[in-house]
Amino acid sequence: EATDAEVMAYIFYDRVVRERGLPREILSDRGPTFASKFWQSLMALMGVKHRLTTAFRPQADGQTERMNQVLEQYLRCYINYEQDNWVEKLPNAQLAYNTAYNESTKLTPFDANAGFTPNAYYDAQEPKNVNPTAIIASDKLKEVHDELKTELEFVRKRMQRHYDPKRLKGPTFKEGDMVYLSTKNIKTDRPSHKLDYKYLGPVKIKRKTGEDRYELDLPPNIRCHPIYHISIPATNHDKSQDQKSTKQKQSGK
C-alpha cells in the first residue's frame, strides 16, 4: 500500500501540483492508496485537507459519480464488443467533457479551471498536397467529438430529470407497445457489466398483468421471467444509443 501511495504521490505532484499548484482540499474514495497512513500523512504535511467518502453516504461524492456515469455512457457507445479498447477512447471523452457547458457553474470545466476554453477543432482548411489519409482521420476525429458532445448533453439532461425530486411517475404501456428492457438483472457474455449495454430490445408488450406489471414477448435467447415492473421497460427511443439488439446471448441472473 505504501508503494502504491508513493507512486500516486509522484503522479499527484507531476499532474496536479506542477501545473496548478497545491489544492486546498481533495475528495477521494476510500481506496487503500488514499486511505493509507503514508498518503494521509503526506496530505497533512502539505497542508491539503483530504476528505474520504463513505459507503453509507455516497452523495458526498455525487458530482464525481455523475461524471463517471456520463463517461461510462460514452464508453458503452464506442468500445468494441470485447471491451478491450476503452483506454484509447478516453482522450476524446476527456476533451468533449472539459469543453462542454456546465449548467451549475455557467462555464466549461476548462474555463473554470484555466480561465479559457481551448478550441477543439478549427474550421477546415484546404492545404495543397494534402494526404488523403489525414483528411479521413481528421474528419473521423471531428465526427466522434461532435457525436460525443451531443451524447454527453443528452445524458446530462436525462440525469437531471432523474434526480429531479418533482419528476413524474413512470410511463404507462399498452399491448403491442415496443419497449427497451433494462439489463440490470440480465447477464450477458461481455466482460464488464458496468460497460455493457444498459438496455436490450426493442421487445413487445404482450399484456398488462397488474396495476404496475407487464408481460413482455421475450425472444428465446433471453432466458428470464417475462413479467416486469413498470419501472424496468423504457419507451424512450433515445435509449437506442445505449441499447443492443436482443439477438445475442443473454441469460437471466
From TrEMBL:
Region of interest called Disordered, as start-end residue ranges on this chain: 234-253
Pfam families reported for this sequence: SH3_Tf2-1
Domain called Integrase catalytic: residue spans: 1-126
GO biological process assignments: DNA integration
Entry superkingdom: Eukaryota
Residue stretches of biased makeup (Basic and acidic residues): 236-245
Keyword set, alphabetical order: RNA-binding
The keyword RNA-binding is assigned to this record: yes
Cellular-component GO terms for this entry: nucleus
InterPro entries, per database record: Integrase_cat-core, Retrovirus_Pol_polyprotein, RNaseH-like_sf, RNaseH_sf, SH3_Tf2-1
Keyword RNA-binding: yes
Gene Ontology molecular function: any one: RNA binding
Designated name of the protein: Integrase catalytic domain-containing protein
Organism: Fusarium oxysporum (strain Fo5176)
